[in-house]
Amino acid sequence: LVALLLSGLLIVFTIFCFYYIIHTIIQQKKLTELKDDFINNMTHELKTPIATITVAIEGLQKYNALNDPEKTQRYLQTSRNELTRLNDLVGKVLNVAAFENKEVRLNKERVDIDELVNDLVASETLKTDKKVNVSYDNKGSIKYIEADKLHLRNVLANIIDNAIKYCDEPVDININLYKHNNNAVFSIKDNGIGIPTAHVKHIFDKFHRVPTGNVHNVKGTGLGLNYVKYIVQAHGGNVSVKSEPGAGSEFIITLPLKNG
Ligand code: ADP
């Protein structure tokens, strides 16, 4: 009986070891794939703006566009847009590096939320060539939110950026802000391509992107939503998403309100 028991245990142990090894190999493979995707995407994300700026500067030099104010303006605007993109990208990567070293410290202050959202919406809609309609309704008449202003702005910017990126024109974004259980709740809805159900629960993981190809061909890093989650949680809040392919997405951000 003891021998039977021991061999039973041995079998269980062997199965467990196999499972563990296979699981580790799969995880490792997934990580390698994620890393490869990330490097490919980053290469594209870095090369594209640099190439565009180079062409714009060459244009200014070669064709003596400086004598043509309209052309000059166009080249300069293009360079500026691309530099903003590069700056955003570098910021995202540096932010992730900072989280890994636990270096992010929040500088909380009383943030005038209408001012922040209206200003952000104005600059986000200027940044894109797509036709974008954004509505903002502060249903809870919330005046201030205790938050790190820069990070809160970046969080909302990431969600709005994505709404624009993963939508065909015309892009419709509805931002609603209301109070619930002493929290400020943002609902940010878009009419975009949506997220396949199997990916919804991974969407906030670092480097996770819905595979391109037949779904969309938008380049990115897979870092934005990981940043969003980190910052929202650092504020004591929570972020979630409801989405279906073809039916748009709704991101819900909950942030504690200090004084109700
Ligand atoms: P990135 O946009 O750089 O890939 P994010 O972390 O911001 O990285 O987003 C992760 C992934 O989630 C995206 O690659 C995309 O597949 C999906 N996604 C995010 N927001 C949306 C959205 N509003 N609509 C559809 N898909 C989205």
From TrEMBL:
Superkingdom of the source species: Bacteria
Domain Histidine kinase: 41-259
Chain ranges passing through the membrane: 1-22
UniProt protein name: histidine kinase
Natural source organism: Mucilaginibacter aquariorum
Span covered, complete protein: 265 to 524 of 524
